[in-house]
Model the fold of this input.
Amino acid sequence: MIVRDGYELDEQETGSAISSEESPDVDATVNGRDERRNVETKTMDNLALRASGVVKRFEIQDGNRNRKGLRRLWPFYKRETFEALSDVNVEVRAGEIYGIIGMNGSGKSTFIRVISTLLFPDEGTVEVFGVDVVKNPDEVRRMINRVSVDAAFFRSLSAKENLRYSARLHGLSPRDARKRYKEILTRIGFDHNRVSDQVKSLSRGMKQKVAVSRALMSTPRLLLLDEPTTGLDPRSKRDVQQFLHKMRDEEGTTIVITTHDMEEAERICDRIAIIHDGRIVAEGTAAELIEIARNGRGEPTLEKVFFKFTGEEWDEYE
Amino acid sequence: MNKADTAVKGKPGGTVAGVREFWGGVGFVERNFALVKRYAGWEAVFVAYGAVNSIIIGLIGKATGDARLVLYLIIGSILWVFLSSLFHEVSESVAWEHWEGTLELTFMAPIKRLTMLLGTSAYAVIYGLARSLIILLAMLVFFNINLAGANLPAASAVLLVSSISFLGLGIAAAVLPILSRERGPQATHIFQALILLVSGVYYPIDVLPVWLRPISVVSPATYALRSIRACLLDGAGFREVKGDILILAVFSVVSVPVGFLIFWAGESWAKRKGKIKIEG
Done:
């Protein structure tokens, strides 16, 4: 049990935690996080994802190489870096829909790429169902799939050809692949008459449905969704969201989703982490985060909670 | 245990490793031919241009009245079409995915990198053979090619072993676009041009400036062209070309694993630096 600002949170039930370093109004401590971790480690052996102390640094792209000239070629030249991820600690239980909300450049996509085995963390470890993403990337890749904000396709190939390619990469025979993509496209509400059209001729919503279908060709245990509904019209967004719930309920898929959309996060996520400047500044269910942020001052929305924990204002966000 | 868990052990997500790798490799062949089909018009243009280029080179030889020279040039031209196709298709495979934006998708696939590169190589061999055959057929319309005294089995053996060495070079070069999106493909084109210049595709390497000749020694194409010409023009057998076959075999044995090693090292570097990221 962790006490935050006068509120009691049953950690064993909710798995929620707040890191207070970036949140001046909340009386949470880093030690509190450690307590939670110990409790969960003892009680949960079915973690889908565990990220411990993940740090990722990138070199600052100067854009003016001439200014530094030949110094850049010197092997001991110290390049300036920034931390895209700073001591990220996340635990996601199997079967959970876990949301990560944050502004552009807050580190959401970088974190997803680390889990996806596309980036090596500079410090810390990431495990997917107990398998280290750096030590055993092949094994991890068999358990995950991903949909990114601007899903990339072979644009001149048809949706069917793209899905078939993805099916092959996941080891499906032609017959299994055909059966599988027909089944998924039907479930996700994709117009079958458009399946032979070139992807570049499809609307953004249809492309995103193809992207989600592609990610499901492999029946992933952990599905990583990097802003999957950004830019979609309300209906397409709802279709995708409903499908995600179906995935979790019927297939038992664990889902990690990043989004800007607070309503979406509140509606579909079991737990939410707020990431800001590469740090997880708050974590809990939507209700808990709102409860903590309320602090006797009216009825905050998740959106208000987000700005409270990140210390940003709407003007800066827009 | 839920469906997603079950899938790890059963179909479709949990296909047996060997089968998965096989279909993964097939996926690259299939995808690339789907792209060829989609851009069929451009393919026809490129093949026609290549055929005309080879025919023109043959006609230059014909103008000299030297039948042997014509055959010398035709062999060089066809062999270069084939070997450069192998190198180009493999080395450009990553660059192509970079442009399409699908590199992250492919690199996230649960197949071994070896499978990806072998699948791409298999496509390159099929594509290169088909392209070379079409150009050869076009040349038959213009030239009376007489291979009566040729030793075809020996020539085929040389072709096989030289193909492997070119695939190795292509695999090593394939990582360059990951290291630098623009400079990588530029470097592979320069490398390909250098091999064309020094390997004696259309002329004996003796005509090269003395300072350039040492480079031809490290090009597998030099040995491939020399020995295939010996087999087809002079009917040389395995005994006569065994030295070149041995050198090409050494190139193959070294270039393929070294190519994989370079690719692996480049990919690891890219994952540390975040260079695989395309967009989003």
